[in-house]
Recover the amino acids of this structure.
């Protein structure tokens, strides 16, 4: 079957970065772009890049592009419209990710029995599995407690780890991060996140925004660095690994405006709990939350990631912070190469996905805007509470 032609190929543009030519789809071609929330722009780029009028149609692109007309303000029920979305990668942890690797191994066995080449069975979408859910605390309060717990971890999970080590060598397009490397979300943030992907196709190097789905509900933490990500079930994750798109309702986007500056005695925990309380009261289940306003510039990436990590607690699908200067500084701090950082910055600026939170002219349209003055945040305490008899 011949490959279907993308009807948006005329939007393809080139850009020279680090003395190398890259290609991308020019979102800035559309006048409506500046009205779209930055999180919706990621969905738009994915739809344009993957449009084949079969899995992703021009109608899908048009509906996302005209999101502002159907922004869920009561005039039109935006939630009636589903769109396909192809994330750039998949992240798994060992508790929920092992079944996916087992399924790929089973597919190889089936192909072998049918007389085919089993080595052709590999994830189509880049997939990372971080082993971090196996360790238990049997020893504590001693200097060698960690080593003792890790020894027991290897002893108890020898069969699983042996299988995963085989998988790391057998499958292409799959990275397995070994035990004791860190928590999956932290590894994702500090090491795995590309922010901007590069992909070689047809002899050209293409650029597009990083996005991820994971088999852990707190995959949303990655939104703190400007990578659109959320948790999904194991079947959906495997579908993405096999190159399929996932279906999601075109979401309402709540704009959460931060102004002012935090009191120096207030911690990021106080801020996170305040925002969580506000969004629970507002009701954001099934909606995107996007943060903007001059107050965002005072938040470190650690603060932003902590807020995004709490997304499942207040019910939102994502809690998104668009890439800004602080994000670029964080990439440098976590030892990304200068070449990679140049690619991220220049591509996002070319496609109007780079954010200056002090510039109100960049503020898009939101379904609803909620404002929080950071100077009003106070310390949070739990209890006291009498138990119910």
């Amino acid at each position: 079957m011949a490959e279907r032609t993308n009807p948006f190929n005329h939007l393809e543009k080139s850009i020279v970065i680090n003395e190398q030519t890259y290609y991308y789809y020019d979102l800035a071609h559309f006048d409506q772009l500046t009205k779209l929330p930055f999180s919706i722009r990621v969905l738009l780029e994915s739809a344009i890049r993957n449009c084949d009028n079969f899995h992703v149609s021009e109608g899908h692109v048009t509906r996302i592009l005209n999101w502002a007309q159907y922004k869920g303000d009561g005039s039109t029920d935006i939630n009636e419209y589903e769109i396909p979305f192809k994330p750039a990668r998949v992240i798994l942890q060992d508790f929920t990710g092992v079944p996916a690797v087992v399924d790929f191994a089973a597919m190889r066995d089936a192909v072998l029995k049918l007389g085919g080449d089993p080595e052709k069975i590999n994830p189509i979408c880049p997939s990372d599995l971080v082993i971090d859910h196996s360790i238990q605390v049997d020893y504590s309060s001693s200097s060698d407690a960690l080593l003792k717990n890790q020894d027991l971890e290897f002893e108890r999970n020898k069969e699983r780890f042996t299988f995963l080590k085989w998988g790391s060598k057998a499958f292409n397009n799959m990275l397995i991060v070994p035990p004791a490397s860190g928590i999956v979300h932290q590894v994702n943030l500090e090491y795995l996140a590309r922010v901007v992907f590069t992909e070689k196709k047809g002899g050209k190097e293409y650029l597009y925004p990083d996005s991820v789905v994971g088999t852990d509900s707190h995959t949303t933490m990655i939104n703190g660095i400007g990578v659109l990500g959320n948790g999904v079930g194991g079947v959906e994750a495997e579908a993405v690994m096999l190159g399929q798109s996932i279906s999601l309702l075109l979401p309402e986007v709540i704009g959460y405006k931060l102004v002012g500056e935090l009191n120096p005695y207030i911690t990021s925990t106080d801020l996170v709990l305040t925002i969580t309380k506000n969004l629970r009261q507002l009701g954001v289940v099934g909606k995107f939350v996007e943060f903007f306003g001059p107050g965002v510039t005072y938040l470190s990436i650690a603060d932003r990631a902590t807020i995004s990590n709490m997304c499942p607690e207040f019910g939102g699908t994502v809690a998104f912070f668009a890439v800004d200067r602080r994000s670029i500084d964080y990439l440098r701090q976590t030892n990304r190469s200068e070449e990679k950082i140049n690619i991220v910055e220049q591509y996002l600026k070319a496609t109007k996905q780079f954010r200056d939170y002090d510039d109100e002219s960049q503020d898009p349209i939101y379904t609803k805007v909620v404002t929080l003055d950071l100077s009003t945040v106070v310390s949070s305490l739990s209890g006291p509470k009498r138990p119910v008899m």
Q: What stands out?
A: The two ends are 69 Å apart (CA to CA).
